[in-house]
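User: Can you help me understand a structure? I only have the sequence.
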Amino acid sequence: MIRSLRTRLVAAGLASIALALALSAAGLSLLFERHVERRLVAELSVQLDQLVAGLDRGPDGGFVVVRQPGDPRFAQPLSGLYWQVEVAGTELRARSLWDERLALPVDVVPDGTVHVHRIPGPADATLLAVERRVILPPRLGEAGARVAVALDRAEVARATAAFRADLLPYLLVVGLVLALASVAQVRVGLRPLARVAKRVAAVRAGTARRVGAGFPTEVAPLAGELDALIAAREADVATARARAADLAHGLRTPLQALEGDVARLRARGDDALADDIAAVVAAMSRHVERELARARLAGRSAAARAAVRPIAERVVAVVRRTPDGAGKAWQVAIPETLEARIDPDDLTEALGNLVENAARHARAVVRVDAASEAGRIRLRVIDDGPGIPQDALDAVLLRGGRLDARGSGAGLGLAIVLEIAEAWGGTLACGTGPEGFCATLDLPGT
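Assistant: Let's start by predicting it. Here is the structure, written out as tokens:
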């Protein structure tokens, strides 16, 4: 089965052209054959008139043709051109008939009327015969005469074959021109569909939000339906994300209350029960965060854009008021115009996890900077804390991976940041250097 619409249209066009040319060749050949026959009938009619005019009485009183038509083929045996006269019981024939005769059909021909027949002839040939029944003048006794002149139709066939041979090159040239025109027509006709495909690709790549307008009447409904589908999907995603956020908010409050109970139990020395409750709280937190991450990443839009500096400043402003962030020196070095191709909420979530982690482990300074390099945004969060050993980084990036088993939190921060980065075509790299621990978030630029 041919799946390409272009191939189908071109194949259908070429088949139609071939059929049209074949029918044209057959029709033109038939018309030419009829035209040749009409010309031959006219010539035979002239010879028939000459034959009638040449009828006379011979010395013995019988009928003879004293003046035969001038074509020399009448005197050449089996030449393909013949005449025959039936008058007063006498049958006169051209020398070219030799010992054959014209098998004229039995019919009634009114006087002076010319009939055209196709009759068998010598050597199994088919003859084109012109027949007329005439009444001779009084000097010839007013006798009735049946006069016929016939020609081998092979001449018609030869002329028609020659015409077809001359016609074939022209038909091939016409067919080639029509084939090229058909291919060009298909290319032009399918160009709006290619434009739709490019617009859809642009929507997926994030360089456009909608397919848009400006298409031909036949394609415009398709573009409109695609835009409506995109809008409906965005609305559904927004609703789903809002519901997920509401669910998370409703669950985080009781989880925070349980964390308070854990602290109080530890203060009373009931560490075993506190550890059990803390494990349950951590497991529930992981489930909440996992479902939130899934809802958020499933609803990502390729057209999303995020201004990096305002988001970083908001995150830093919030974290610096927490117990871990208070008393630390905060540095933000990000250009004002820097934008990343990521949803603002996702960037806030990812950057929030990195900044919270830095605030928790920093001794005195946390630095957040970003730069654009070759169409990519490199966002770094650096703290002057002890860092993480290289052999422990893989464990930290796993969901629930932590180095401090008794600390607060569910151990999801860096793992969630990694998922967010990968979902938007980015990466997360962590390492300890001269400045301290550095988490680098690499994202596509705009």
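Now, to help you interpret it: Residues 333 and 369 are 5 Å apart (CA to CA). The chain has three domains: 5-159, 208-303, 304-446. Let me know which part you'd like to focus on.
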